[in-house]
Amino acid sequence: MNRVAFVFSSAPHGSAAGREGLDALLATSALTEEIGVFFIGDGVFQLLAGQQPQVVLARDYIATFKVLPLYDIETFYVCAASLQARGLNENTPLCSRRHGGGARGTA
Questions:
Q1: Residues spanned by the domain of 28
Q2: InterPro entries recorded for this chain (predicted)?
């Protein structure tokens, strides 16, 4: 299989896009090891630690990002400009780093 990239560009919990993207990412990881994962725009909020989706009656799929290393997805890229535009930075706690999983790059 060729290389595959997943781009998360929408905020979590407002639509099913993030959850469905994560499901597709995990399913694709069974078929190939050459997967790129990118978080741009509002997609950087997908990784934000400390979310409380139960307040808006949403499922907490964000916690699933911490298991990416179990699927051999150990590197992902977060857009530094997107972080900055949203008042975040490279030191902002992200769910995967907080739980000890995954490496982090900036794009």
A1: 4-106
A2: DsrEFH-like, Sulphur_relay_DsrE/F-like, Sulphur_relay_TusC/DsrF
